[in-house]
Amino acid sequence: ALVITDSKPGSIVIGPVSGPIEGGVPVTITGTNFRSGAQVYFGGVLATDVRVVDSGTILANAPSNSPGPANLVVVNADGTWGVTPQAFTYFAEAPNVTRVTPQAGAPTTQVTIEGDHFDTRTQNITVDFNGVSARVVSATSTSITTLVPFGATSGPITVAVFGRAVTGPVF
After folding, report:
1. Whole-Å CA distances, 97 to 91, 156, 158, 161
2. Burial 108-126 (b: 16+ CB within 10 A, else e)
3. What is the 3-state secondary structure of the chain?
4. pLDDT tens, residue by residue, 60-90
5. Rounded to an integer, what distance in angstroms lies between the CA atom of residue 165 and that of residue 115?
6. What are the pLDDT digits (tens) for 16-71?
7. What burial letters (b/e) apply to 136-155, b meaning 16+ CB within 10 Å?
């Protein structure tokens, strides 16, 4: 039996080559042997709004992902695929604190920190009350719930997400 397969996608290049972890960045992918129905993956996460323009161009939106480099994989509907290692780099934007409530409290007081560029995974967030590490109870992309730690004294609150820190108001 003779099996004939189409050529796999190759010479894959993307532009731009970086974007925020929140995703949504429009990208143009160029290369060869792209076919209708192709899917695009960034570090294993499916891109959104994928449009195969022609056999050499795909337009898509980068999905949200973790910070750092991501492989770019194009998979044609017939199963042929091509990859460019570390083709796109995700970066975490510095968090922004807009409000802290309450603005004072004893140890174990629950505090809500509002802002943006937070992460939903608490393990990626650190909160310090004047240099004393606090437990992060929960988080969304715009809100962090934490507890005032024992040993904290009046001073600034520092929030770090993926290692990018910002100093907020005095607590």
Report:
1. 19, 12, 9, 12
2. eeebebbbebbbeebebbb
3. CCCCCCCCCEEEEEECCEEECCCCCEEEEEEECCCCCCEEEECCEECEEEEEEECCEEEEECCCCCCEEEEEEEECCCCCEEEEEEEEEEECCCCEEEEEECCCCCCCCEEEEEEECCCCCHHHEEEEECCEEECEEEECCCEEEEECCCCCCCCEEEEEECCEEEEEEEC
4. 999 999 899 999 999 999 999 999 999 999 9
5. 13
6. 999 999 899 999 999 999 999 999 999 999 999 999 999 999 999 999 998 999 99
7. beebeeeebbbbbbeebeee
Residue of 81, 86, 62 lying closest to 5 (CA atoms) = 81
Rounded to 5 degrees, φ, ψ at 122 are: -60, -25
Question: Whole-angstrom Cα distance, residue 104 to residue 85?
Answer: 48
Instruction: List 125's β-bridge partners, or say none.
Output: 161
